[in-house]
């Protein structure tokens, strides 16, 4: 998963980053609440990890902003030294998905993060065939059909198509797409994403007339969405 971490303790942040990157996740760390909100307003993530007592804005204030402004149902986990039952209940009532108290334990943290990943993606992972309107994606055979015709695609074009359709309706940043499909490769840039999106749009006819639109969002990324005739 692509994870945004809010943690003002640099040693704690480095430890969490190490544990989760060893587990295969991609971590972006910010140390204060305002910087965190400014960053996630222009980037998309699969999970938010929040400390509670952070400079500028607290973790619970960040959570409130996320639930009011982030359309995609991104899970949120708290990691905090606040152990009172009242605090835990407050965080969960405001929309947190999980709550860990410090000191953190490596294997528990990784297990809970992986559980949130499974929960958020279970609907799609259970489907070997993904059908949305005229598009049919055979995940096991790595084949795509548009109406009554097979669509030839490269490996990366297929991976990107599947990623977009699994996140239909969500606004995805170029950085999120790049890291999810190509990994953190310093030799690649976001123009790679733009080129592949253009090819997919043309091959599948993802224009409003088809009922599915793949559109760019200025200075941000892309959204695949259903549109009415």
Query: What is the helix/strand order?
Result: EHEHEHEHEHEEEEHEHHEE
How many extended strands? Answer: 12
Largest sheet: 5 strands, parallel
The value of Rg in angstroms is 19 Å
Helix content: 40-55%
Major β-sheet strand ordering = 2-1-3-4-5
Main CATH class of the largest domain: Alpha Beta
Shape: elongated
Return residue spans where pLDDT drops below 50 for at least 5 consecutive residues: none
Alpha-carbon distance between the two ends: 35 Å
**CATH fold annotation of the largest domain:** Rossmann fold
At CATH's second level, what is the architecture of the largest domain? 3-Layer(aba) Sandwich
Helix/strand-derived category reads: alpha/beta
Q: Roughly what is the average pLDDT, rounded to an integer?
A: 89
**DSSP helical segment count:** 8
Number of domains: 2
Superfamily at the CATH H level of the largest domain?
A: Response regulator
| Proportion of beta-strand residues | 15-25%
Could you please describe the fold and organization of this structure?
With 229 residues, the chain is of the alpha/beta class. It folds into 2 domains: 2-122, 3-Layer(aba) Sandwich (Rossmann fold), CATH 3.40.50; 129-226, Arc Repressor Mutant, subunit A. The protein is 42% helix and 23% strand. It contains 8 helices and 12 strands. It has helices at residues 10-22, 33-40, 59-69, 85-93, 106-125, 155-166, 174-182, 190-204; strands at 2-6, 26-30, 47-50, 76-80, 98-101, 129-132, 135-138, 143-146, 149-151, 171-173, 212-217, 221-226. It has a 5-stranded parallel sheet with strand order 2-1-3-4-5, sandwiched between helices. A 4-stranded antiparallel sheet has the order 6-7-8-9, covered by helices on one side. A 3-stranded antiparallel sheet has the order 10-12-11. Helix 3 links the parallel strand 3 (47-50) and strand 4 (76-80). The longest helix has 20 residues, at 106-125. The two termini are 35 Å apart. The mean pLDDT is 89.
């Amino acid at each position: 998963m692509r994870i945004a971490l809010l943690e003002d303790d640099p040693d704690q942040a480095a430890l969490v980053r190490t544990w989760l990157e060893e587990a295969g996740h991609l971590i972006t760390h910010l140390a204060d609440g305002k910087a965190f909100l400014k960053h996630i307003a222009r980037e998309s993530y699969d999970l938010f990890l929040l400390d509670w007592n952070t400079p500028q804005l607290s973790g619970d204030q960040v959570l409130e902003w996320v639930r009011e402004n982030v359309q995609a149902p991104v899970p949120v986990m708290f990691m905090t030294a606040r152990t009172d039952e009242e605090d835990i209940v407050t965080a969960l009532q405001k929309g947190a998905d999980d709550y860990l108290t410090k000191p953190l334990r490596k294997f528990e943290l990784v297990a809970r993060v992986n559980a949130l990943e499974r929960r958020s993606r279970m609907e799609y992972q259970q489907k070997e065939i993904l059908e949305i309107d005229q598009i049919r994606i055979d995940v096991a055979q790595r084949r795509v059909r548009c109406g009554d015709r097979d669509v030839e695609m490269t490996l990366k074009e297929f991976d990107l198509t599947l990623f977009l359709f699994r996140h239909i309706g969500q606004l995805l940043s170029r950085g999120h797409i790049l890291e999810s499909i190509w990994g953190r490769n310093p030799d690649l840039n976001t123009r790679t994403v733009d080129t592949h999106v253009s090819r997919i749009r043309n091959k599948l006819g993802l224009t409003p007339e088809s009922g599915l639109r793949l559109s760019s969002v200025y200075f941000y990324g892309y959204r695949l969405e259903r549109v009415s005739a």
